[in-house]
Write a structure and sequence with these properties.
Elements: E1 8-10, E2 13-16, E3 19-20, H1 33-48, E4 63-72, E5 75-87, H2 88-101, E6 117-129, E7 142-149, E8 152-161, H3 163-168, H4 173-183, H5 192-195, E9 199-211, H6 212-223, E10 244-245
Antiparallel strand pairs: 1-2, 2-3, 4-5, 4-6, 5-10, 6-9, 7-8, 7-9
Helix pairs in contact: 1-2, 1-6
């Protein structure tokens, strides 16, 4: 996965083609609580039939890959992400709506659910192709795998786990690869020869979550003006922003 975003000013100096002029990669984008609050605002605006306001200034519009998850009393309610880096404002908006209404594993979210929901945002960074299927660390890396089955060579199997998934379910590395193969839609028992063909891309993530009550308190405490809630805005588009996956 390429994290290059063209020429722009880096936070620690000028950046060209995704690399700072001093030769270092750009620092990863850190998730901030305003990203989570913006996701709540987007979904709440959807239910109210209005166009969401722009995000708070704390949410930069740099390009990043993002996953957004919704949880109802601790149970997954929907999670969809994009592995394609897109401007954060559009990416957060689109992923919040996709996870709420377009995750095929769940019915579309109902307005009445909002008070019970928690939103989780992962901003992905440091994508790197692993040397083999064990070249990653549980608790540090998330994984995307891809492979082909010789019986169906035209099909590419793909699946993704965020870093927190493996730790939450107490997986070993072998468990994670096996479960990802199942998640990708492969129904047979993976042979050693198939396992040896699995391509693993590892990545890291900055993760934050907050509940609906925290979101409402944020605005009650005088932050509503940071999103210009009385202004009119137009929606943008995120090129390639529909390369989605679910956790």
């Amino acid at each position: 996965f390429s994290m290059a975003h063209g020429n722009r000013d880096g936070r620690n100096g000028m950046m060209t083609n995704g690399v700072l002029m001093n030769g270092a990669p750009p620092p990863p984008i850190t998730a901030v609580r305003e990203m989570v609050f913006y996701c709540f605002h987007v979904v709440e605006s959807h239910f109210q039939g209005i166009i969401p306001a722009p995000p708070p200034p704390a949410v930069t519009n740099e390009s990043a890959a993002v996953f957004t998850g919704w949880y109802n009393k601790g149970h997954l309610r929907g999670c969809i992400g994009s592995l394609v880096p897109c401007p954060l404002h559009e990416n957060l908006r689109d992923r919040a709506l996709d996870a709420a209404f377009n995750d095929s594993r769940f019915p579309a979210m109902e307005h009445s659910e909002l008070p019970a929901l928690t939103c989780n945002v992962n901003v992905l960074h440091s994508f790197e192709e692993a040397r083999d299927r064990y070249d990653w660390v549980i608790g540090t890396h998330g994984l995307t795998i891809s492979f082909h089955d010789h019986q169906r060579p035209s099909r590419t199997y793909k699946a993704t786990y965020l870093p927190s998934v493996m730790t939450k379910f107490g997986m070993t590395q072998e468990d994670a690869i096996t479960e990802l193969i199942k998640k990708a839609g492969y129904r047979g028992r993976p042979s050693e020869s198939l396992l040896n063909t699995v391509r693993v891309t590892k990545f890291q993530s900055s993760e934050l979550e907050a509940g609906y009550a925290e979101y409402k308190a944020y605005y009650k405490n005088g932050h509503a003006d940071t999103m210009h809630l009385n202004g009119k805005v137009t929606e943008g588009e995120c090129a390639n922003g529909h390369c989605n996956g679910s956790t």
